[in-house]
Amino acid sequence: MNKRQMAIMAIMDSRTKFTARELAERFHVSVRTIQRDLDALQQIGFPLYAELGAHGGYRVLKNRILPPLQLTQHEALGLFLMLQVLENISDFPFSSIRAHLSDHYLASLPADVKDTVGALRDYVVFLQQQATPPSPCTTEVLQAAMERKELSFDYAAPSGRKQVRAFPLGLYLEHGLWYMPASNRGRIILYRVDRMERAMISEKQCTELPTLREWLDKPESRPGKPVVLEFTSFGARLDNSFSLPPEGGQWTGHVPPEELDFLARRLLQYGPHVRVVEPCELRDKVRDLLRQALDHYEDD
Q1: Which domain holds residue 212?
Q2: Which of 65, 155, 166, 276 could be disulfide-bonded to 184 (CB atoms 3.0-4.6 Å)?
Q3: Angle subtended at Cα 191 by Cα 236 and Cα 97, rounded to the nearest 5 degrees
Q4: Last residue of a domain, which of 60, 81, 97?
Q5: Residue 148 falls inside a structural domain
Q6: Crossing angle between the packed helical segments 31-43 and 3-14, to the nearest 10 degrees
Q7: What angle do CA 130, 261, 158 make, to 5 degrees?
Q8: Residue at a domain's end among 201, 217, 233
């Protein structure tokens, strides 16, 4: 592949349509030379197609094949280590990247680099810390969010299965679960993606919604109860979600009332290494959950 063909690929990424004559004038070569370049790019996998007529030209398919990666040896090794991490996350969006890079890119590497990549598996192991339930709709969620389009799906809510139409803001992974904040009738509602089925992207758009990053960075506007938690040093090491110093200490914050049940269940994982100072409502919820757990071990 020559420099002109690489430059043509850059133009393909920035424009939806172009003509061979436009490219010929830009690179000061003949139309026939450009056509040979385009033929060469098609042969290595770039999905170009021609439109005939006065307003015709060349177009590139939306899910086109991008230029090949040009990595140093250290970058190639780091890439495959990242793929090992991704294998621990089920239903990662656009998950075909793992198989494609592992099979096609690995096959193109020199033999000595392939041997080094293979040896990495014996020296670096990423143990799965928390099971991620199947969430097959992650790709549809992310596509709908980036295109600002409405997503319809079946949802297994606590009150029963229902059909939902909402505009996703994005997708995030926390504690082994995929979550989708989405706008539904003017309210932002948090959905668990593992409870979604049969997701379909519609053509209906809403361009006024915030991005996921903007929504996460926005201060909490819902009314919340003041919460104070006391962690031991060991409790601080169990999880870094509360941003505690290594020696432990107090965490203070405001939690919406509807999320206290979730917080109580989450605190059980810390066992005796966390204590709810306030509110009393949260302390009672944790105490009730502990009693229910003890009931399983009471003698008949």
Answers
A1: 138-217
A2: 166
A3: 85
A4: 60
A5: yes
A6: 80
A7: 80
A8: 217
Distance of CA 172 to the CA centre of its chain: 6
The partner residues of 174 in beta bridges, in order of sequence, read 177
CATH number at residue 172: 2.30.30
Q: How far apart are CA 288 and CA 281, in angstroms?
A: 11
Quote the crossing angle between the two packed helices 280-295 and 260-267, to the nearest 10°: 50
Could you give the CA distance from residue 169 to residue 60 in angstroms, rounded to a whole number?
28
pLDDT digits (tens, 9 = 90+) for 211-261: 999 998 887 666 778 999 999 989 888 866 777 777 778 888 888 888 889
**What is the rounded average pLDDT for all residues in the chain?**
81
**What residue spans of the chain are helical by DSSP H?**
3-14, 20-27, 31-43, 73-86, 96-100, 106-108, 111-123, 138-146, 212-217, 233-238, 260-267, 280-295
- Taking a C-beta distance cutoff of 8 angstroms, is the pair 169, 184 a contact? no
Q: How confident is the model at residue 62 (pLDDT cuts 50, 70, 90)?
A: low
Identify whether residues 142 and 100 lie together within a single domain.
no
Domain count, the chain: 4
Residues 146 and 205 placed together within one structural domain of the fold: yes
Q: Judge contact between 183 and 165, C-beta under 8 A.
A: no
For residue 77, the SS3 value is helix
Q: Tell me the pTM.
A: 0.61
* Judgement on whether residues 230 and 199 belong to the same structural domain of the protein: no
CB 126 within 8 A of CB 89: no
Check whether residue 251 and residue 277 sit in a common domain: yes
CATH of the domain at 46: 1.10.10.10
Q: 48-51 and 57-60 as β-strands: parallel, antiparallel, unpaired?
A: antiparallel
Cβ atoms of residues 211 and 224 within 8 Å: no
